[in-house]
Design a protein that fits this description.
Order of helices and strands: HHHHHHHHHHHHHH
Radius of gyration: 19 Å
Subcellular location: Endomembrane system
Membrane topology: Multi-pass membrane protein
Low-confidence stretches: 184-188
Protein name: Fucose permease
Largest sheet: none
Number of helices: 14
Number of strands: 0
Family: Belongs to the major facilitator superfamily.
Shape: globular
Main location: membrane
Helix content: over 70%
Strand content: under 5%
Distance between the termini: 24 Å
Length: about 375
Amino acid sequence: MQDLIRAHAGLLFAGVATFILMGAGQALFGPVLPVYLRDFALTEAEAGLFVALLWVGCFLGVGIMYVLGARIGPRHALAAMAAGTAVMAASPGWWLTLLGGTLFGLGYGMATAVFNPRVMRAFGARGPSMLSLLNATFGVGAIAAPLAFVGLGSDPAWTFGAVAVALVAIFALAGPAGRVAAAPAGEVRAFRPHWGILAFGALAIGMEASLAGLGPSALIRAGVAETRASELLSAFFVVFLLARVGLIFIAHRVDPFLLYTAAIGSAAVFALGAVFLSPAVFFVAMGASAGVFFPGYYVTASGKMGEDIRVPPTIVAAGLAGAITAPLILAPVSAALGERGFFVLVACILCAISLAAILSLRRMRV
């Protein structure tokens, strides 16, 4: 294992550093929403568009990877994310801020489809565990960013500006990662979309995106102070990170769809806790479940769909379809349902997904 790590040190450095900043950038979308609501005099639906366009950008980035995957490397993704965060730091107006969020999402989608399959392939039988490690580092940035946002006076310009500078620095050092093969050599299995697991992925990632992007606003609506909501989002990502670190030790031993089902089921229980007991406590608890959504989904889908170069972008694109639509639907509907309306909607959706996953366990095993 140590020999593999040494052989792929450039890939690991670039992947870990990029995922940390992906987590930081995404986690900032939630805390900055209340600021934008005030500064740009937005409605809840307009604010939800900011979160949704992040994922629209991701979808476009994945589309680029589907068509040009063999030609796209880490630096292309880093350049797009750096440009997006720089625009958001400048905050020249609401529509240009939306453009910045979309550009960041473009690079985010490209990075997801660049690094995940390369890491899975580079580490062979340990690929699922190393995938969990890579995605766990996302949580480091996601924990730090909301706290940094509060520490910088809840100023989007300073916080997004710091992320932009860090992305430029990684861009300068990311060259070795681009030399890792984008596709396996030799014969691979044919490209076979598996619509069942893609649907499960879309639903799960839609819930993850909604919790991270709309959660702080939902907590504020439920009576939590704005600063406290940012701190709770950091706590959400602390348990998110711990869950992904735990996966490093078990992901190669447990069927991935069983992990997915357990994550969705526990999230449903925690969402009910947020409705009937404490939104703050159980929102944080849902971070542990959300941390398992993507690894469980990605490894299951990879096993079901083969190793064609189009498979990783397709897997990511399905998740992004949910991430785009879920905030657009949940933001206006939950605002009309009262103080805990967001958590009511999330609980209902997660319970339905849990039932479907339990019924599909046998068919989804890989």
